[in-house]
Design a protein that fits this description.
The protein is mainly alpha-helical. The protein is built from 14 helices and no strands. 67% of the residues lie in helices and 0% in strands. The model has no long low-confidence stretch (mean pLDDT 95).
Length: 405
């Protein structure tokens, strides 16, 4: 019997997560220079369409059918085979089509996160190939291994909404991309529209409630815990980043405040439905401070991660996964585990091993994949197009009329 309350909530959560991809496009579009706004935004929006195609063809099947205890699923549900209008998700509360759509929104936004690292340096053709292959050989296996009953799930690894699956893999793939495409010709680039960044970060924060609370795939006490943990951690991270930057640079920075909120959201993601509410301020504060200094370290090392994908998502995902190993409690979620402070030292070790292994795999695979793609088609734009800007150089469009901005 369908649970109408849970089904209605999951339809809303799915819509919220979908909204995060346009929100990401606005966030990155505002941070980019005015010659590269459309070039970065199209990389997010194309994922809305193409990832859906892949998900229908075989993505959902590879993630969520067969392969119990393995690395990848099978093709038994390819092209939605065997999923009827009345097929139910395994918890017996919502139609499987709703779960299919919800997980599809995660698949859409994950590779789009990476794009902020190589803004104005990569050709669209190479990105399209990257978008396709990275999902199939990085994202799908980790979804299956953790959420689809695969290897890591059997071992006892937990990830409530994507600390490993989404943020760690995307963040370290972004770092590999930076090392491969190298620095921009003009690194002295400033955001073209901070208000657009604010709109994007607001949409991301709003959508993240569906991202985290929806990952319970039902409406219960865990759902409400995940919701409030998400907001508290994001808020504490926002203020932590604001103050540490204010102290160090003598000025409160709006872009820093907004970036801190995303760091908090990324860090609480693996923890949201597994940790007590009192842990979320600690996790959020740690996120604001650790991610700020990760970005500072990146700048010191002169890694040209243009929009700080590694420092925010990569480091945030790793930090959150490790802190889950510290603060998780079965008293909050019986389907979870007890972390270090509740006597679960072995669980913390599993979390560390899993997130480190995932990060290393995503980094190495991404770097090798870009080398191979470059044999097929040039990955990096030539210097002339980079100076002209990707909007006009690759797409023949401009974000604004002449004379505006």
């Amino acid at each position: 019997m369908i649970d109408t309350g849970s089904t209605g909530f999951m339809l809303l959560a799915t819509s919220l997560v979908m909204l995060m991809t346009p929100g990401l496009a606005f966030f990155y579009g505002g941070l980019a220079t005015k010659r590269n706004i459309l070039g970065i935004m199209i990389q997010s929006f194309v994922s809305l369409g193409w990832t859906t195609v892949l998900w229908v063809f075989f993505g959902y099947s590879l993630c969520f059918s067969g392969g119990e205890g393995g690395v990848i699923g099978d093709f038994s549900k390819a092209f939605l085979r065997g999923i009827a209008i009345d097929s139910m998700y395994s918890n017996g509360k919502i139609p499987e089509f709703v779960f299919f759509a919800y997980q599809m929104m995660f698949a859409i936004i994950t590779p789009a996160l990476i794009t902020g690292a190589f803004v104005n340096r990569i050709t669209f053709k190479a990105y399209f190939i990257f978008l396709t292959v990275w999902q199939i050989l990085v994202y799908y296996p980790f979804v299956h291994m953790i959420w689809g009953g695969g290897l890591l799930a059997q071992w006892g690894v937990l990830d409530f909404a994507g600390g490993i699956v989404v943020h760690a893999t995307a963040g370290f793939a972004a770092l590999a991309s930076v090392f491969y495409v190298k620095a921009r010709v003009d690194k002295n680039s400033t955001p073209n529209s901070i208000p657009l960044v604010a709109i994007g970060s607001g949409l991301l924060w709003f959508g993240w409630y569906g991202f985290n609370a929806g990952s319970e795939v039902a409406v219960d006490f865990v759902t409400s815990t995940a919701f409030i943990n998400t907001d508290i951690a994001a808020s504490f991270a926002t203020i932590a980043w604001l103050f540490v930057e204010w102290i160090r640079e003598r000025r409160p920075k709006f872009v820093g405040l907004l970036t801190g909120s995303i760091a908090g959201l990324a860090t609480i993601t693996p923890c949201a439905g597994f940790v007590p509410v009192w842990a979320s301020p600690i996790i959020g504060t740690a996120a604001g401070l650790v991610c700020y200094f990760a970005v500072h370290f990146k700048n010191k090392m002169k890694w040209d991660d243009a929009l700080d994908v590694w420092g925010v998502h990569g480091v945030g995902g790793v930090l959150g996964t490790i802190l889950l190993g510290v603060f998780a409690s079965k008293a909050i979620n019986g389907a979870g585990a007890d972390g270090l402070i509740f006597g679960g030292g072995s669980f913390l070790i599993k979390q560390v091993v899993a997130v480190v292994s995932a990060s290393i795999y995503a980094f190495i695979f991404t770097y090798l994949m870009l080398i191979i793609i470059n044999v097929v088609t040039p990955v990096k734009v030539d210097e002339k197009i980079e100076k002209l800007g990707l909007d006009e150089g690759l797409h023949g469009e401009k974000a604004y009329d002449e004379g505006v901005l």
